Fold:
Amino acid sequence: MELASFESFRRESAREILDVVFRLFIERLIPTSHPIEKIVALFGIYTFYFSQPSTSGPSLYSLKHIPIPIDIYRSLLDLHNELTDEALQPLQPYATRLLTTLLDAQVFHILPEASLLAQNPSVLPREIFVPDGVDPSTILGTASGEASTSGTQKQPKKKGRPSKRDKAKRAKDAVLSLDKWLEKNSFTYPTFATDSGSGLSLAEDATKTTHALIAHRPITQQQHYSAQKNQLLALLDSGVQDDVGVGSSSRGSISDQHQHPGKAALSRANEAILARLRKIDEMAAEQGLEVGGEGGEMTGLSRVEKAVADYREGKSRGGILELVEGGRYRVWPAGSGCCYAGTRYIYGSHVDNFWQAFRMCVHVEGTWCSKSAGSVCWPSVYFYNSYRLEHRRAA
Structure:
């Protein structure tokens, strides 16, 4: 006890040290403790309390009262009744003598029950030693099911660096976990035979695997987008049909429709996008990069230019907007390059989904360029927004 008293001459520090020491003894007096533990704790409390230095220079702090929860206090008073075992019975008179001395000195300061956490701190911070080969759940008092992961019980953590065997086991477990995740989220779909001049080499009756989220088409979003676009184009066409006449056999050129404000806005949007794409094409060419216009006819920038030209001549209803669904009206020739995002045909053969088409391409500065020929225009990808390609060949 002298060691604990001389640990610190500061009053606050000495009080904290003594509070913790006596509290550790009190915690061993709980009703669930073994009687021998209670006897040792009682001897410790008696020895530490009555060996505190009372006269010294300079004066040292000494604890006057020991806080104890009332339920633990009742368990302490009933200690002599627990010493009925033949091995513990000789200790009964000594325990009674020590307890009587402490009660006569009015040492204990009664607190509410321990379950109410009336002490500060409510729980003492501590480290619990777990011997090798012992399950931590048995020492911490937790159920074996709570200390298990994936149906297997946790092994105690080994000290030091992991061995090569442990590293190999961890790597194997990680691979197995990844395989289970892929198996759970994979979707297998059939592929189709290609045309002779297409440039694709998918085997007939072969199957491919992709992620489940990619394999399922966002039909609801696609239908909603198509309905909104058709409604917009219908509103833009309504004023023109009133001016030209409902019974007219042709839409007329854009020069005949320039008076209508809706058509004028759509025309400006087409021209602005085309101008910006040409600017991007020029900037990429200055840096020596492959650009959308280098793929030949009907690739990249050329497709956008043709769509805008068709709109100017009145052959197209929406200009660039028609590129999203342009493939359903036209079959691009085999070898002409990747189609726009949203087209139903690529290289004249079936394509299962949107991402299969993109895997045939390499992303270069905003342009999806095919290694064989052609490219996918980035604005069409922006319009389509990752909708899945449909695979239905033209009649």
